[in-house]
Amino acid sequence: MRIARFSIDGNVAFGAVEGEPSGPNGTDGLVLDIIKGVPFAEFELSGTKVPLDKVRLLPPVLPSKVVAIGRNYAEHAAELGNEPPASPWAFFKPSTSVVGPGDPIVYPSFSSEVHHEAELAVVISRLCHQVPRERVKDVILGYTCANDITARDVQRAEKQWARAKGFDSSCPLGPWIETDLDLAAASDLAITATVNGELRQAGRTGQMIHPIEDLIVSVTEAMTLLPGDVLLTGTPAGVGPLLPGDEVAVTIEGIGTLTNKVISRG
User: Fold this and answer.
1) Does the pTM of the predicted model rise above 0.85?
2) Which of 12, 18, 32, 207 has its CA 20 to 30 A from that of 160?
3) Could you give the count of Cα atoms lying within 13 Å of 241 in the half-sphere of its Cβ?
């Protein structure tokens, strides 16, 4: 099931996405069956359906925290002159960094070198702590596309990455959550990023140094994850600059495409 979060006539709801994507935006012909309740508990489909092109898609979740994993693809670590870490290397992006599909990425005033980073995002289904490897599948609601927007010059200049990775609009998520992927499938998906239609990144999630199971085990050894929290799993090689006016699209096999435009701060 593909679960989207959306607004219509001032109301916010979740809906199951039905149909096959088509058209230039990949949304033609899709409809939303409005969900009774929330996807983190038992829910029913209402049978009330609205065309997806009549609603505004929102970030598929509003996480209490986004836990991101750095340098989890060897070629990406190498392209920035770094060695891959021996164990998962986590950092945070605040909830205020999250935006949805079609929302603008606002170029930060304190940077002159902003990069895209296409990533697979894992959405957590339930409160969990110290999750054993064999139970990881039980705490995953599904997967979505993410773009770990990074002020690269600030990242190089500051030891902590809070500003470089956590500024407002630096974490686009969407367009929806795909719940029908199992761990085996999610561990070998094609992932790409394009800027203005030009291919910049192309990799597979199977290139991760530390797989999804190891990431969740490592993170939950230290902290409790809540329903709707998001884990970013790292980016393949090919990261590069964005400028105001650019349109960046992250596509993940079996999930969909997340598209955002970069704008100057007003």
Assistant:
1) yes
2) 207
3) 7
